[in-house]
């Protein structure tokens, strides 16, 4: 009987975190590629590129970041930027160069976490040292993190020599890595306050940690108030890297790294991105083995994006297509949630009821089912099996390497689910929410 109802319904996927293919800027990518091929020195684009990426592109990204964030510490300079082939590989390269399975004592991941980062840490030999840190109202729980860092440091028999030595080409190994998505987090949707960001940097400095922040959703932002102009949002929330270099006592290596990607603002298949950090750290990024063998790992793709950035096509795509589309979808989705799910006890995590003057953004929101009569996993299962709507159940966002993660999440994110508005059009999103409402009613029987 259950199968029959679900078979009559078109599947709706609210789990995947990808843009609708119609939002890929195909014409702009084509124009940028053609412009590249019309250049006399097109052969240069097809050769191996410089390790840190094209210097023009690094400069163009630095200018674009300066414009997007207006950092108090001053303009972003190209020496702070290296081209990567996306945030995932950016993280992998950072770990190859700046972490060491012997010396690095812990990877601290905000939980609920972007679970696909976990295997990247394991690949770097850091399995067994990957821990979750709960996310509170204001981002990562600093008190918890501080206590755990102290505990681990006190219980480690140091000095323990890194296997990766300075002489071997590893000029700086961090003792800890912290991984977070401080703005429009995946999955929670939360944004960390500036005060909390400062607190995190202070902790990182004290414990020799590198905070890697995936800043991949920052520029996709809009006012929550319907009718409010987009200009109202101003520049992006200061990144950890900008705060780090503006706080007295910063080191030559720094304690923060911003991991950026064109996957969310051009197209995922482009596989190009950048990292920003202190110039010393960026310079060492150019010595990652797989980069030295052949240069910048995303050379051709990055030159295409460079054309899009320098022609204004990228900014225009973000401002005129992505933001208005996502904003409209977000409005429809949140309205439908309030109408159909709030009466059943559901809440959007972080929703304070008053949306005037606030900013939303990114790809995701997180629902809490704590106020419902049925449990989160049962709701997700019923939604899929009976109503053919897929949501990302809270259980997938724990840190699997940390046995305590699931226990900590019992009272919070495990009773929820992540929903994405980037993949589906408005009408499908609303249909999906209506189906979830039915699933909750069924699951509560
Ligand atoms: C937080 C976060 N980091 C990284 C990625 C992947 O980025 P890239 O495609 O640049 O590897 C995603 C994609 O969903 C993400 O949400």
Automatic annotation (TrEMBL):
Give the Aminotransferase class I/classII large domain ranges: 30-400
Matching entries from Gene3D superfamilies are given as: Aspartate Aminotransferase, domain 1, Type I PLP-dependent aspartate aminotransferase-like (Major domain)
Enumerate the GO terms in the molecular function aspect. Answer: 2-aminoadipate transaminase activity; pyridoxal phosphate binding
Protein name as annotated:
Aminotransferase class I/classII large domain-containing protein
Please tell me the species this chain comes from.
Answer: Clonostachys solani
């Amino acid at each position: 009987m259950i199968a029959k109802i679900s078979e009559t319904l078109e599947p709706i996927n609210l789990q995947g975190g990808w843009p609708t293919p119609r939002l890929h800027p195909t014409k702009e990518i084509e124009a940028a590629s053609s412009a590249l091929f019309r250049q006399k020195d097109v052969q240069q684009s097809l050769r191996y590129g410089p390790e840190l990426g094209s210097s023009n592109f690094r400069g163009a990204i630095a200018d674009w970041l300066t414009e997007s964030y207006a950092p108090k510490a001053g303009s972003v300079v190209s020496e702070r930027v290296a081209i990567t082939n996306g945030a995932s590989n950016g993280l992998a390269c950072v770990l190859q160069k700046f972490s060491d399975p012997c010396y690095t004592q812990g990877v601290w991941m905000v939980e609920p976490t972007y679970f696909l980062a976990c295997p990247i840490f394991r690949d770097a030999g850091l399995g067994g040292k990957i821990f979750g840190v709960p996310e509170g109202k204001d981002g990562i729980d600093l008190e918890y993190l501080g206590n755990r860092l102290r505990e681990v440091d006190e219980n480690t028999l140091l000095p323990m020599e890194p296997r990766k030595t300075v002489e071997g080409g590893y000029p700086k190994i961090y003792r800890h890595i912290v991984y977070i998505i401080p703005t429009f987090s995946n999955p929670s949707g939360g944004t960390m306050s500036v005060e909390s960001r400062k607190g995190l940097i202070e902790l990182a400095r004290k414990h020799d940690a590198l905070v890697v922040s995936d800043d991949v959703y920052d520029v996709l932002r809009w006012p929550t108030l319907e009718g409010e102009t987009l200009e109202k949002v101003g520049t992006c929330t200061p990144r950890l890297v900008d705060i780090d270099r503006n706080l007295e006592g910063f080191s030559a290596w720094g304690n923060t790294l911003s991991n950026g990607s064109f996957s969310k603002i051009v197209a995922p298949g482009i596989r190009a991105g950048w990292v920003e950090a202190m110039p010393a750290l960026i310079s060492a990024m150019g010595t990652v083995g797989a980069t030295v063998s052949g240069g910048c790992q995303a050379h051709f793709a990055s030159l295409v994006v460079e054309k899009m950035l320098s022609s204004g096509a990228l900014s225009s795509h973000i401002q005129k297509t992505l933001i208005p589309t996502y904003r409209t979808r977000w409005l429809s989705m949140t309205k439908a949630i309030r109408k159909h799910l709030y009466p059943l006890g559901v809440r959007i995590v972080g929703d304070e009821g008053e949306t005037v003057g606030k900013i939303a953004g990114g790809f995701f929101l997180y629902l809490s089912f704590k106020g419902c009569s049925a449990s989160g996993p049962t709701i997700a299962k019923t939604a899929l099996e009976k109503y053919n709507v897929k949501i990302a159940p809270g259980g997938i966002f724990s840190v699997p390497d940390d046995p305590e993660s699931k226990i900590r999440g019992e009272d919070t994110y495990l009773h929820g689910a992540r929903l994405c508005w980037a993949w589906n059009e408005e009408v499908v999103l609303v249909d999906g929410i209506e189906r979830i409402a039915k699933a909750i009613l069924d699951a509560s029987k």
